[in-house]
Amino acid sequence: MGEHINNPVPVVAIVVAAGSGSRLGADVPKALVPVAGVPLLTRAVAQLAAGGVGEVIVVAPVEGREPFVDALADAPVPVLWADGGAERQHSVAHGIALLPDLPEADADAQVVLVHDAARAFVPPEVVGRVIEAVRAGADAVVPVVPVSDSIRELVDDGSTVVDRASLRAVQTPQGFRRGVLEEAHWMVAESGVAVTDDAAAVEFSGRQVTLVEGSRDAFKVTEPLDLLLAEALVAQGRA
Questions:
Q1: Are 121 and 230 in contact (CB under 8 A)?
Q2: N or C terminus of the chain: which is more exposed, having fewer CB within 10 Å?
Q3: Does some domain include residue 4?
Q4: Residue 131 lies in a domain
């Protein structure tokens, strides 16, 4: 782990919002799909702000940017805009490039979160838990939940049961010391390595990842059934 961080620099969240939403059957990009009349992107930024984020960098498609901007016209925190890339890791790298200029010591220690706009209902306490773990000294922090389904691994002659007791499902926001995240993305770009998330990039750079408790409410809206669950959360006042 890194040194303890006691730093007044605002927490910045890079929000990845460049998904197409094709699996939702929507006629708008996924981040703009409404739940109870409010776009997922709007809800995601509100949850991050409630959890302690002071500024967001939204990575959105280059074409058709206006409705994304409209969705955050009344955002509770300042918003910057970055262009989406060919793959998720490229999109995050574009967001990293827009991090504000700071003195070297502050920049290295600044807490940066990376979050999927589709996880629009992450509870503020999970966001806060990630931030505090980074401030307490972790280089990288990932919220996780236990795997509830039985899992089988495909092998050459069929499949075999995997002990789910040792498995965890990974969520966002993932949190990092800024210097750690910048170094990790530089290394994967130089090596041409493909990673599925930012924690994997940090592990590739040789650093450890710390796990904290996530929430079932931080599910990723991917398919039509997820929208029904999202509507139910809003109806219950949990978002």
A1: yes
A2: N
A3: no
A4: yes
